[in-house]
Amino acid sequence: MDLLKADYVDKLGPLLSAEAAAEAPGTGVDAADLEQAVWVRLLESGGPAPDPAEPAEPARWLRRAVRAEARLARRRARREIPYGHGRGSADGSTTGGAAAADEPEDALLHGEENRALRSAVARLPGRCPELMKALLSPRDLTYREIAGELGISQGSLGPVRSRCLGCLRRMLAAEVAAPGLRGKER
Predict the structure, then answer these.
(1) pLDDT tens, per residue, the chain with 186 residues
(2) Which long-range contacts (CB under 8 A, 24 or more apart) does 166-174 make?
């Protein structure tokens, strides 16, 4: 680490802490994580650091870097789903399989969803039912094993799977969305 960047730790530390603390609540990330990401960004920047003779330049760079890291954290938070985030309840907690059995309504709804899915998979055309059963098998088969089981080439599994899922999606959408009157009643 060159001396110029080491100097920034002392000079810009308080400003970085304040900026990170201001941006952190809106991102869902701890302020210390934002600070660390900005320091890493500064250390990894291969280019020259902002001119220390111009006091506005390092501060402006730092503010932009904090905001950029905050934007990245917000995007990441929108894309990521925590492990075990299956079914959410009204209070925001998640329920697993054992906890779902505690509530009779949850168990009933879960059973109905499974029956509707199994019924729709069984009505799929062609090889789709066998393929979907193999993909959802608890044995966790590889594409090579599935292709051998079904007697089709491994390269065609992806396109066939895509078509089957599209067909299943259309079937379930048609069942879920009850057709109502469109337009004006006569």
Answers:
(1) 454 556 767 778 888 889 888 888 877 788 888 888 888 887 787 655 555 545 557 788 888 889 999 888 888 877 776 666 554 444 444 444 444 456 888 888 888 888 888 888 999 999 999 999 898 888 888 889 999 999 999 999 999 999 999 998 888 877 665 555 555 554
(2) 167/124, 167/125, 167/128, 168/120, 168/121, 168/124, 168/128, 168/132, 171/120, 171/123, 171/124, 172/116, 172/117, 172/120
d(CA 180, CA 178): 6
Mention every residue, 6+ apart, whose C-beta is less than 8 A from residue 159. Answer: none
Q: What's the CA gap between 44 and 37, in Å, rounded?
A: 10
What is the rounded CA–CA span in Å between residue 129 and residue 175? 18
Among 15, 26, 25, 30, smallest CA distance to 65 is for 15
Please state whether the predicted TM-score (pTM) of the whole model is above 0.90: no
Residue type at 173? A
| Burial category of 132 from C-beta neighbours within 10 Å (exposed 0-12, middle 13-18, buried 19 and up) | buried
Q: Nearest to residue 67, comparing CAs of 108, 97, 29, 95? A: 29
Closest CA to 33 of 98, 77, 86, 88: 77
